[in-house]
């Protein structure tokens, strides 16, 4: 019996017992699908987080922030730093710097009527330009006079506006922040894009920097935004500025660029996702092994049921090797088909998660290949004993078996 004949014989045997074959491969299918979906969702989530942070950086802007950062309203372990006016002056002295802006970020309650939400407050002196990247879906942007007069006006993210005002129009409404009533002048379609968005959520209230400094005088500057001149080597300039800031602070590690921050965040995310993938992957691996035991059990049952068939084939000249390979082929086909269906199912789960969460998933081909090969190897390992048992049957005893 050649390979093609063995393949067709194994396929016919599986199709003759469709339900049993499906239930047998179910453990393999679930294990492979779990591995594929976990890796796809994990990689997609990791990329989404890093991209979300990276998107906060504009082409001609260097973002500098303290390594030990204080965000008012959040718990702060140990010693923390913030950007001072002296730090802004140091950065402005470099010839490659066109202007230096800053961002003040904090957490506090925002109240409208009976609704109170703990939201992120964002303020900066250049918001007339910085907020131009947003689509104001209701109301209007700040006016220059709002900044000069430090008026109590505020823009709300659409998420925060929905929580405070429901389906009503928030423009013209009053919210209370820090005990002061603010007039809502607009609603943005997107949350503020900066390095803190990931950690502080999507409930944002934006106000002029002058207003924020009057209302929260103890809040420090959380981020320095350095706009560079055309043709300047940004990496080199950033290193010079950070070095000067660290010398002034008396600490070689006091400040870092957003690139360094992103590297640290990405490293942390990689460690966390690797641990989670390892743990959940181990569980999926156990499911594969359990599925393999199920394959072995069913193949032993199949050998017992087909004992007379084996005896007839041996009496007609079939070798022990041919018998062994036929049953081994059936075992491998069960696990291989289960692996293929599991790959498709796992990919489908990833696509479904992406559709629901709007976070793109990423399936790595090495993981797909490994999952398929591993399922096939399980078929070989778990099918070897039943196949060997079938090959060692005595033809005479097999023919007598009932």
TrEMBL record:
Ranges where the ABC3 transporter permease C-terminal domain occurs: 282-395
Listed GO MF terms: transmembrane transporter activity
Pfam families, alphabetized: FtsX, MacB_PCD
Cell compartments where the protein resides: Cell membrane
Family annotation (InterPro entries): ABC3_permease_C (IPR003838), MacB_PCD (IPR025857), Macrolide_Exporter_MacB (IPR050250)
Recorded superkingdom: Bacteria
Its membrane topology: Multi-pass membrane protein
Record bears the keyword Zinc: no
Keywords, ordered alphabetically: Cell membrane, Membrane, Transmembrane, Transmembrane helix
Signal sequence, start to end: none
Protein's UniProt keywords contain Transmembrane: yes
Domain MacB-like periplasmic core, chain residue ranges per copy: 21-242
UniProt GO cellular component terms: plasma membrane
Family: Belongs to the ABC-4 integral membrane protein family.
Protein's name according to its UniProt entry: ABC transporter permease
Taxonomy of the source species: Bacteria, Bacillati, Bacillota, Bacilli, Bacillales
